[in-house]
Amino acid sequence: MTTLFISDLHLHESRPEVTQAFYRFLNEQAQGVEALYILGDFFDAWIGDDDDSPIGHEVAQQLNALSAKGTKIYLMHGNRDFLLGNEFAAAAGAQLIHDPSVIDLYGRPTLLMHGDSLCTEDKDYLVFRQQVRSSAWQQQVLSSSLAERRALAAKIRETSQSMNSLKAEDIMDVTPAEVVRVMKEAEVSYLIHGHTHRPARHSLVVNDVQCERIVLGDWHHLGWCLSVTADDINLHSWQIS
């Protein structure tokens, strides 16, 4: 049995090569696996399940085809697609899961996160995150028109890119003390997350126990996937043509 983890695909109509690479991934690497976890920023922006853009419908169909063959699909919100809802999940044959979530990964207690909440030095972002994750803010946004939501998403993306260009690199990475804290609290030996776009495997000690933090990569020039079985863990990448 195999479980796969991906994140930060940032699917968007302007990046058809990434969308096609994801479809190939579903039809090749993901065939016959036990579960597929998508840990946030699946879409570059998501303005609501009522969005009439073709990409959302097409992606849901592709996921549903994999789900129909027996693979369990789990979706976690990221900082770009926090408005993903139950309607999309149902169409995709997937289940929304909380950030954070703890699973038993073939006997390994494992914490799953998108990863943005680990970047505690980025104070401005954490204020923004608290705002957009509130049900009141989301209800207000979802009650506006699709055109208004598209304009808001574009504005948020532009503001984020502008602000990030002014921040030191270490501010946008995880805070080591926060990593240790959440792993202690969850009582896990593994943490899997995305968000930082810095794929790697990090060894650390938590409560005198050797543990590991695995960071998933973003899909840009490369596709990234973590493959886990009862016997092995592999973080691998491949060229996106």
Describe what this molecule looks like in 3D.
The protein has 241 residues and is α/β, with parallel strands linked by helices. The chain has a single domain, classed as Purple Acid Phosphatase, chain A, domain 2, CATH 3.60.21. Helix content is 34%, strand content 25%. It has helices at 16-27, 54-68, 86-92, 123-132, 135-142, 146-164, 176-186; strands spanning 3-6, 35-39, 72-76, 94-97, 101-105, 108-112, 190-193, 200-206, 209-215, 222-228, 233-239. The strands form two sheets. It has a six-stranded mixed beta sheet with strand order 4-3-2-1-10-11. Strand 2, helix 2 and strand 3 form a beta-alpha-beta unit. The chain is globular, with a radius of gyration of 17 Å.
CATH third-tier fold name = Purple Acid Phosphatase, chain A, domain 2
Overall residue-averaged pLDDT value: 94
Unreliable stretches, pLDDT < 50, 5 or more residues?
Answer: none
Number of H/I helices: 7
Radius of gyration of CA atoms, rounded to a whole number: 17 Å
| Shape descriptor | globular
Which homologous superfamily in CATH is the superfamily?
Metallo-dependent phosphatases
Q: Care to count the β-strands?
A: 11
- Portion of residues in helices? 25-40%
Question: Which structural category do the helix and sheet elements fall into?
Answer: alpha/beta
> What is the CATH domain class?
Alpha Beta
